[in-house]
Amino acid sequence: MPELPPFGLLRLPAEIRFGVGAAGTAAAVVERFGRRVLLCTDRILSATPAFRSLHAELEGRGHAVLVLDDVQAELPLGSVLAAAELARGFGPDVVVGYGGGSALDLAKLVALLVSHPRPVADFYGENRVPGPVLPVVAIPTTAGTGSEVTPVAVLSDPDRALKVGVSDPALIPRAAVVDPQLTVGAPPAVTAHSGIDAFVHAVESFTASGRFTEWPETLGVFVGRNRLSSGLALDAVRLVSGSLRTAVTDGSDLAARTDMALGSLYAGMAFGTAGTHLSHAIQYPVGTLTRTPHGLGTGLLLPFVLEACAPAIGAELVGIGTAMGLPDPSVPATLAAVRALVADIGIPGSLAELGMQRTDLPRVVELSLGVTRLVGNAPLPGSAELVTEIVTAAFEGRPARALA
Ligand SMILES: NC(=O)c1ccc[n+]([C@@H]2O[C@H](COP(=O)([O-])OP(=O)(O)OC[C@H]3O[C@@H](n4cnc5c(N)ncnc54)[C@H](O)[C@@H]3O)[C@@H](O)[C@H]2O)c1
Ligand SMILES: [Fe+2]
Description:
Elements: E1 15-18, H1 26-31, E2 36-40, H2 43-46, H3 49-60, E3 64-68, H4 77-90, E4 94-99, H5 101-115, E5 125-126, E6 136-140, E7 152-155, E8 164-167, E9 175-178, H6 188-207, H7 227-249, H8 254-274, H9 278-290, H10 294-309, H11 314-323, H12 331-344, H13 361-369, H14 372-375, H15 384-396
Helix pairs in contact: 4-5, 6-7, 6-8, 6-10, 7-8, 9-10, 9-13, 10-12, 10-15, 11-12, 13-15
The chain binds nicotinamide-adenine-dinucleotide and fe (ii) ion.
């Protein structure tokens, strides 16, 4: 096992409920935060019996409930501002995010903008939120982004070339209710993309640079891999690698869905302080250029990132292979197993297959290098050479050269 940094940091919701049936207790959790409840979800989920039953129970308990069910994919800025405006008119005590990462991130952004009515751009980046925000209760229906426990919300701003993130501990939901049963209806592509994203969160938080070697004066939002995040990340690797294939091929398998929900929760708990790195930095421009889902891009890129970074993370890769249950968890065996997992759930093997052109590569490299908070978290210095090697190998679909 690799040597772990001597210090640790976790920041989490005050309460996390996990397990089949937990969603049935969500109204009691929400109730603790006040009487006026804003429910953020989308139209697919607002029509499900589980959502209707939560809505009915809240009303039955005498709460004033407003349902905002037009969450849009990739969270365009205009839709976030419209939601915040509606929310201000309603005056919620608590905002509930019910859905995939998009719905959870919208709930966080609405809570932020109701509490601090300023342009969203004021909050882009790290640690820019001036104080507490309305309490958020997060109820994920995918496994997943881990957004139910993280300090991050991501949106699309037409003035920016890439999706933008607000990262601040103030955005961590006050409570998370994680019920694997809610993910059973997620279609195979959503299961594959959000599930492999959870795997990438786990692997990247375990391989992030161990910058946290002494207590700094002020702590960043992401501090790199650390003592408290590492065990959670490995448990997430074990759960997701063991059950993602089954969850994709048989969505009704509740045992696989349970492993995935727990794995994605652990991965979110880990990357909430450790942070992610190059697969995420490079997915930003790839997602914008090819209009492909977040998890499809991070999953496609992960094998190339690990191959290029292998000289710096040999012990970590062996640890990951061990967590994946490999009989011979060597570096090459782990790299092959990660590649197989990504391929088996239907993720394309190259950026060319997403419609990218070779002439797009320099721009992708330049924009990726601009995501400094993630590039700076990489296990090797995030140089132009390293990112160019990864992006070129990923474009061609051939193993990346290991760069020392
Ligand atoms: N805040 C964070 O920490 C964080 C981390 C990773 C990703 N993200 C963001 O999360 C978003 C992706 O989230 P996602 O992968 O969960 O997908 P999503 O929220 O965009 O949902 C994708 C689709 O799946 C449907 N869906 C979700 N759950 C379902 C269910 N149980 N049954 C049927 N349909 C269901 C939704 O209606 C939607 O149409 C991206 O915008 C990404 O940037 C945020
Ligand atoms: Fe992600």
